[in-house]
# Entry
Amino acid sequence: MRGHVIRRTAILCALAIGGSPTAPALAQGAAGRDLAGIADEQEILRRQLQRLKLTMEALIPRLEAEGRTHALELLRQGLVFLEERSADAGSLTLDELMDRAREGVQSGQAMRSLESQERIISGLERLLAILLDRQSLETLQESIEELRELRRELEQLSSREAAIQRGTEELRQASATPEQQALEAALSEMLERQRELLAQNEELGRDSGLFELEAIERQLDELLRRQQVDRAVLESWSPPEREPLAQAREPLAAARKSATQAERLRQAAQLLREGAGSAAQASPSEPLDELKSRLETAAEREERHQRASGDDAARQAAEALRASAGELRRAGSDAAARQAAASAMEERAGALEEEAARLEASAAEERAAASAELERASEGDSPAARAAAQARTALERAAEASRPADAARAAEEAQSALDRALEELGQLGPALSASQEDQARASERLERSLEGLEAGARESGAQARQSLERAAGAMREASRAARGEDAAAAARAAAEAEAELQRAREGLARAREEGRARASTAPLAGEQRELASRAAQAREDASRAELAEDSGAQSQRALEEAREAMERAAGELEAGKSASAAGSQRQAIEALQRARSAASSGVRPSSDAQRQAAEQLAQEQRRVEKELLELATRERERKESKAAPSLERAASSAEQAGEALGEGDLEEAEEHEERVQREVQEALRELNEEEESYQRLRQEELLFRIAEEVSTLLEGHRKAMEETRAVDAAREPGQQPSRAQRLALRRISKDEGALGARSGEIAAAIAAEQSVVFAQMMREIRQDLERIARDLDETGDYQTGSRVQALQQDTEESITWVLEALKQEQRDRQRQAQEQQQGQQPQQGQRGQNKPRLVPDVAELKLLRRMEVETLDRLDQLLFLQIEGDDFGDVQRLAERHERTSELFKRFRERLGIPEPAASGPEAEVQKP
# Structure
């Protein structure tokens, strides 16, 4: 319905102000009825807007629950806009504007209503842009320019901070004593030499296969360790040990049950005795409601337990409690009846206690039977024996317990311990079987890894591979035996596998020794020992250098660590353990870096010139700090700013660096300066990401607008095509058009020419976004439309025949291609945006560009291919028609299009770095010498 009401209002307004004074009254009546209809439609639109507002408000809780923060923010922005009273809308909300438009129509003030409806359309377009998260191109470009300006200023500050860093470094070097400078230079040289030795070792290890051999050897050591554990467990495992534990479980469970039942009966008996005493002592007028309630509650509890478990003790307790509660209720205030009920409660309590005593005696007998079984099972030091001893200890506590409740808990502990032991022992066989199967697979993986090495083909390597293969077979045999609970066979197979692993390890050691001999690591080990001696000498030099107390101690400790790591690396190189040596060499590098850092610390300016230089650096650092704070403030004021925290941290570090420079602490100043640069780079990264986001939004909005323009262009061209066909159908063949037809053709020509001019504007806009294929396509559409316009007017002698219509059809097809490609790109961008919201990575080519292309290269190449295929198809059609005469205009147009397509592809190939294809066919033959 967009624009429908406003168009009707505009027509009626024109009739009202431009109609003839002789217009019949009937027309005025019709206009009045139309105005009334417009007023009704305007009211319908207002109600729809109110429903939209209510729907938006109702969506807020749902979006909050789903955590869709971005959609929630857009919805809230839309609601704020609906309540906004902007100057452009005459300080009225959209709802109020619709009321004013309706009132204007009803009162006959059509012009006033027309103005209100124009503002309403503008407001609705703005609301749609908010909800669709579409911003204006102007706003987006302003944000991009603002970000670029911030980035330029921040890059300048980064350059100035780098200059301060260089100045501080130069000042620190100049302020150091000759001994410090010499020590620092020596440490730097040693550090560089250690890095060279590490690189040589890594290259030698990779080339000789020592790295891989050592890795296999480490994995084999771990495999052997696990196999030793499994073998020890299998040797101590005895599945028959579970039998005494299982036999002890039955009497133990019975003892626990009897003890629990006895405790239940004693609790019920105690409640009955307490109730009997209360009933006997109470006066006839005193109510016994509380006592009756307690008895009934206890009876209900016992009844529930009896229904759930079928416990006979619970049934007895429930019956006694329920009967006592009933007698008290019937007795009422009758003293004699109360005494009789009390006596009955005493008798019932006694009966329950007798049954409880019987159950306790039974529990004691069953515990004794279980204890005897557990005593036999607890001999030895196996897992089953330890579990039996633990359960027997709990049973002893149950026998010594003075209260039935304590005895019941101790019996429960004993049964739980026994159940855990039985479960663990039952799972031991499957667990050992699975472990041995895993060991077998690991052994086979090592065998395959060794097979892929050169060392695996030599005699020692082949022996190791065979041992690994046999070990895997023995492990699988152990796995099968453990699964069948044949502990002896499983232990023998596991021991055999362990022996084969030992032999494989010996073979690997021989293979590594052979590899070391071939790799000649001895010279490298010698150079490493020499560097260790230099580290020891550097430690002595550090002790004599005029370093600050803390710095000297730190430097000496670090150098001692470096020397030890170097000595260790030399020994490992001599043993052919290149990988282990590489680890030690890296530790030496870290220690040397700490030593150099400590040696360079504690340096302060000593001369007046040096102190003046430090003060100048401090002043420049303060200026940088001030400008960083100003940038941070500007960032805070920007909407959706991300870089402000990084800028504030950079300013804080700059302040600390300035203070350190002012105090002459050059080492601390360098640390803070480094942090300033890190935070500045982080802020630059955040600004770049934000700019990329704005660029994408700008491209999406531009893509949307261009697609709308192309859609309008297609609609206008199709209308011109229909009108051209209509004129051509009305013309007599071979006759000149009539005056009316000429006027119609001039108008169509003018429309097509205007569409051609608009195509040129679209082409220029697309070309500005570096989308060369789409731009070229639009230029060709412009040229075709201009040619059609010439052919339709007097310049082309008012042509309307098949040639012009064919050209119009070709143009329609080209516009459709462009529109389809643009729509597809819109869909792709929407899909990528959804994937990004779901945490997926955006596709390659959509990130890392400061200004992403309007359409990606793949879309342009697809359109380019389509253009070339269509050109060839058109050429085939012309050849099929066997063109006669001298009119080769279509052929020339196709040739020009082909040439432009080839040129576009060449430009693509050069930009993407694709080499030019080699010549083939007759041309290649001519080029041959």
In short: The radius of gyration is 48 Å.
